[in-house]
Amino acid sequence: MPTEAEDRLIALLMVQREALGAAVFAQMLREVPGYDRLDPVRLRAQNLHSVDTVIRTLAERNPALASHYVDELTAQRLAEGVPITVFLVAVQVVETVIRAAIRAGLADDPPAAAHALHRVDRAFSLVRNVVGRRNLTNVMQPPGSDPATHR
After folding, report:
1. Mean pLDDT within 124-138
2. Residue 150 falls within a domain, yes or no?
């Protein structure tokens, strides 16, 4: 059962979800090389979906939600030719925006903020592991190769 602090965290993020998605989008355009050439409508929708996935993962305490979404998005970005290092910058942008919202929104309750930030740290550690695993899979078995003959 969620604690009052956890309920507050989820409520904070839910109320700000549109603004968080917009902040992620704007920051990605500024900081992630090549993302300004991606379809902006699609990128904005994916950014909001990323924020929603973070919120659901934290609310439901279900890391499989983030794992599945990030694995698919990583595969998509790699197939589009986005270098893994660039994609990791995009992941960092999402984390930075979420962390800033938590620090600001829970500034009046340092223990709740610390707990929330710790949960975000754990979630994004998982995300980076999933990204690395997907990248390794692509390196070991490039898209279009035959897994039966690839060594």
Report:
1. 94
2. no
User: Is 30 domain-assigned?
Assistant: yes
Encoded tokens for 44: 């904005």
% pLDDT > 90, the chain: 85
Residue 143 predicted with pLDDT over 90: no
Alpha carbon distance 138, 151 (integer Å)? 13
H helix intervals, 1-109: 4-15, 17-31, 40-60, 63-79, 84-105
The alpha carbon dihedral of 57, 60, 61, 62 has a sign of negative
Domain CATH for 31:
1.10.490.20
Q: What does the pLDDT read at residue 138?
A: 87
Q: Flag whether 144 is in a domain.
A: no
Burial degree of 107 (CB within 10 A; 0-12, 13-18, 19+): exposed
Tokens 């949960």 correspond to what residue? 119
Rounded to 10°, the helix 84-105/4-15 angle is 110
Residue with tokens 């999402």: 94
The secondary structure of 108-119 as a DSSP string is: T-HHHHHHHHHH
Q: Is the residue at 49 inside a domain?
A: yes
Please tell me whether the overall predicted TM-score, pTM, comes out greater than 0.85 for this model. yes
Domain that holds residue 35: 4-139
**Overall number of domains in the chain:** 1
